[in-house]
Amino acid sequence: MLADPALRPPSIIRDDVLNELVMAARIAPAGDIVEVGVYQGGSAWVLGGVAREQGRRLWLFDTFSGMPWHEGGLDFHRKGEFGDTSLEAVRQRIPDAEFVPGVFPKTLKDAQTRGLRAVALAHIDCDQYRSVRACCERLGPLMLPGGVMVFDDYDTLEGAQRAVDEAFAGRVRISPNGKARVAF
Question: How far apart (Å, rounded) are the C-alpha atoms in residues 126 and 146?
Answer without folding.
Answer: 23
